[in-house]
Amino acid sequence: MGRGEEEEEEEEEEEEEEEEEEEEEEEEEEEKAGRKEGRKEGREKEEKKKGRRGHKKDRKKERKKERKRI
């Protein structure tokens, strides 16, 4: 009976370890997904900044044209 109990304990420990590994993998996947979302947000912010800069440059060009007219 001693051996049977030891085998059961080992099986339970292995199952617990597998569950922990699965949980860790799920957490890693969630973190990766979060990073991807963060990257998307960062890209959107950069695009907005570039758009603003572009708009600013357009205004400068328009002012130069107006100065040349005068």
From TrEMBL:
Superkingdom of origin: Eukaryota
Basic residues bias spans: 50-70
Ranges of Acidic residues composition bias in the record: 1-31
Region called Disordered, residue ranges: 1-70
Compositionally biased spans, kind Basic and acidic residues: 32-49
The protein, known as: Uncharacterized protein
Organism: Octopus vulgaris
